[in-house]
Amino acid sequence: MGQAEKMLKRLVESGLDCADDEKSLFAASVDNMRYSFLPRFVVRAKSGDDVEKTMRAAYDFEVPVTVRGSGTGCAGGCVPTLGGAVLDLSGIDFIEIDPVSRVAHVGAGAVTAHIDAKANGFGLFYAPDPSSHKYSSIGGNIACNAGGLRALKYGTTREHVLSLAAVLADGRKISCGLPLKKYSVGQNLRDMFIGSEGTLGIVTEAWLKLLPLPSAKTAALAYFDDDGSAFNGIERIMRANLAPCVLEFMDTETVACVRARNPGLSVPENAAAILAEFDGERNETLFQARKFAETLSPFSDAEFAVEDSAMAKLWEVRRSASQSMYELGDSKISQDIVLPNGVLRDFFSFYKDLGRSKKLATPVFGHAGDGNYHIHFMYDSSDAGARARALEAMDASIEKAVELGGAVSGEHGIGFLKSKYMPLQHGALELELMSSIKRLFDPKNILNPGKIYAPSDIEGLSPLKGLKLPWD
Ligand SMILES: Cc1cc2nc3c(=O)[nH]c(=O)nc-3n(C[C@H](O)[C@H](O)[C@H](O)COP(=O)(O)OP(=O)(O)OC[C@H]3O[C@@H](n4cnc5c(N)ncnc54)[C@H](O)[C@@H]3O)c2cc1C
After folding, report:
1. pLDDT in tens, 320-355
2. What's the pLDDT score for residue 457?
3. In percent, how much of the chain has pLDDT > 70?
4. Residue of 449, 426, 429, 425 lying closest to 439 (CA atoms)
5. What are the pLDDT digits (tens) for 386-427?
6. Residues β-bridged to residue 366
7. What is the per-residue DSSP string for 120-174?
8. DSSP-derived secondary structure letter, 447
9. CB 339, CB 373: distance < 8 Å
10. Choice from 32, 74, 370, 409 to test ligand 1 binding pocket (greatest atom count within 8 A of CB)
11. 208 in Cβ contact with 106 (< 8 Å)
12. H-helix or E-strand spanning residue 86
């Protein structure tokens, strides 16, 4: 009997919910990027105790364990590239709200939007809102330091986690901090887990900061003649005394795709767009939206909306961006780079020229203001050399972003798909320190092995075609 079989036997005998049927293995083999690696078996944890038992067995038998929340990840982080067990945390999904402390105590598998909805019932809200919030788990958000549309005003997941509990690679449980707004007692272990993508330990529960729910929102949408005018618009908004919670950019290629896919939305021809949202008291949101329109008036006539249905119509332009870009090809290579606001023209002229020279479409949308852009190279799978050209073009674009002072990833993390970019972002000493920390937490290298610290080459791999996931 192999090591994985011995581990499975022990877990089944301990009464844990394990599965090794074809359907369960396949479901645990992919994330949103669709590169499939089958595990030997799946453990569906229902409590922190299940996680401790699983890790004790994994440690004894030296079996790799890949942690899985909801599988919406965009870096192959929850994919078991080295086989072994997948530990599915979606069953640890309790949510308790303490309205007096304004804190949510949640299980790692709780769905982000469910936490926000439950907090709303107490006049509170959970600010980080990744576009995947109806599906993503809070454990996955913490592991990737997820951002979201409101990150410009409220920050990313890191700013909203007060404390957490985690299980280490050998099955011991630790607590990191307390659910207090202020805490200054020794080293901050909590922040080691945020953004470490399940490679240092497994987050089982967390205490999150909640904020008073704004009473009103106003959305505003502005179209521009070209991308350069939209960049001017972003600069003017950032210089003005304006505090949008959302500031989304869509370039001319993206807007053209949205127009083609959604004739009912009255999207103009040849336009770039910025969508903003303001939250707070009604007077304040209206004041800000009018100021937004004034600020952009040399370039654009912004329209704004306060009623839910009218706001939803403006939002639809942004919400349909991701799917609409399949107008430009049935396949894509995409990344979520971050750029300092001052280099947008330099970066995007390089990237668009590269697309033209490689005969690839280059639609972009992103969280303007915080500089987090989703760049794409779109192509048709029937074009034999296109994937290789797209991969090459993406490597060059990432290199350019870093050269201009930007980052390889703003919110999706590294997983195995981007680990080759780590040396671009970090020096040898920083990389060695990170690997030493990994060894300290996980001396047998059983937690999410093959991710972040190990360089990977994806050229020979292909994502699955035609696989429909719940959020598509
Ligand atoms: C349509 C769509 C829109 C998206 N929009 C955004 C966005 O706006 N902002 C953004 O930041 N991301 C976005 N994402 C990416 C993704 O939703 C986030 O990375 C999210 O945080 C992943 O959560 P998950 O529960 O699906 O994690 P998974 O995909 O299951 O796992 C992601 C990583 O976290 C690790 N992990 C999961 N749970 C735990 C745990 N409890 N303890 C330790 N490690 C754990 C996994 O091992 C893996 O490395 C989007 C994805 C999709 C499909």
Report:
1. 999 999 999 999 999 999 999 999 999 999 999 999
2. 77
3. 100
4. 449
5. 999 999 999 999 999 999 999 999 999 999 999 999 999 999
6. 249, 373
7. HTTTEE-----TTTTT-BHHHHHHHT---TTHHHH--GGGGEEEEEEE-TTS-EE
8. B
9. yes
10. 74
11. yes
12. strand 85-88
CA dihedral 322, 328, 330, 331 (to 10 degrees): -70
pLDDT(466) > 90 = no
Write down the residue that tokens 């105790």 correspond to: 49
Written as six digits, the tokens of 307 are: 């009623």
The tokens of 206 are what?
């967390």
Instruction: Label the pairing between strands 65-68 and 372-379.
Output: unpaired
| Residue from 32, 52, 70, 78 whose mutation best tests the ligand 1 pocket (most atoms within 8 A of CB) | 78
Q: Supply the pTM of this predicted model.
A: 0.96
- 451, two tokens: 């991710």
Nearest one of 226, 207, 91 to 157, comparing CA atoms: 207
Distance, CA of 232 to CA of 246 (rounded, Å): 17
Task: Supply the residue whose CA is at minimum distance from atom 21 of ligand 1.
Answer: 141
**How many other C-beta atoms lie within 10 A of the C-beta of residue 295?**
20
Cα end-to-end distance, the chain, whole Å: 40
Which strands form 202-209's sheet, in the order they lie side by side?
95-98, 103-107, 202-209, 161-167, 173-176
Residues near ligand 1 (Cβ within 6 A): 31-32, 66-74, 77-78, 89, 108, 130-132, 136-137, 139-141, 143-144, 146-148, 197-198, 202-203, 411-412, 415, 448, 471
Q: How many Å apart are CA 49 and CA 263, to the nearest integer?
A: 53
Instruction: Please choose, from the candidates 454, 451, 447, 416, the residue with its C-alpha nearest in 3D space to the C-alpha of residue 166.
Output: 447
Kindly list the structural domains of the chain, giving each domain's residue range(s) and its CATH number in brackets, ordered by start: 95-212 (3.30.465.10), 216-323 (3.30.70.3450), 329-413 (3.30.70.2740)
Question: Burial level of 220, CB count in 10 A (0-12/13-18/19+)?
Answer: buried
Quickly list DSSP for 380-443. Answer: -TTSTTHHHHHHHHHHHHHHHHHHTT-BS-SSS--TTTSGGGHHHHS-HHHHHHHHHHHHHH-T
CA distance 193 to 173: 13
- The model's pLDDT over 149-203, given as tens digits with 9 standing for 90+, comes to 999 999 999 999 999 999 999 999 999 999 999 999 999 999 999 999 999 999 9
d(CA 67, CA 48) in angstroms, rounded, equals 13
* 8 A C-beta contact, residue 435 and residue 454: no
